[in-house]
Amino acid sequence: MKTTVFAAGLLALSTVAAAAQSAPPEMGAPQPTPTCAEALPQIQSLIDQAGQAGLDTTDATAHVAEAETARGANDENGCIRSLVLAQNDVLAKAQAAAPEAGGAPAAPPTAN
């Protein structure tokens, strides 16, 4: 149940983020991409939340390690690329764990 709630929340957040990226011109210019240093703690927090919700975060954690290595080598693009891979991995696993769109979450099992 915890995973389902996390996944549903994460899907709602990703929908809002996608809408924010395609805002109409009257809403102003899109926000600049965060730097590696700004994005790293945010992605790490996302991974921590996913892990607490029961999702497998092994691949995402490996991508964060790659991002930290790239950051140490002053490779901003490599760092951001690895963080995007980590985020995408968590989103994909959350989507797979979420109930099908439009369906109600499964009821918890009852004791007989």
TrEMBL record:
Keywords: Signal. Residues 1-19 form the signal peptide. It comes from the Bacteria. This is Secreted protein. It comes from Aurantimonas endophytica. The lineage of its organism: Bacteria, Pseudomonadati, Pseudomonadota, Alphaproteobacteria, Hyphomicrobiales.
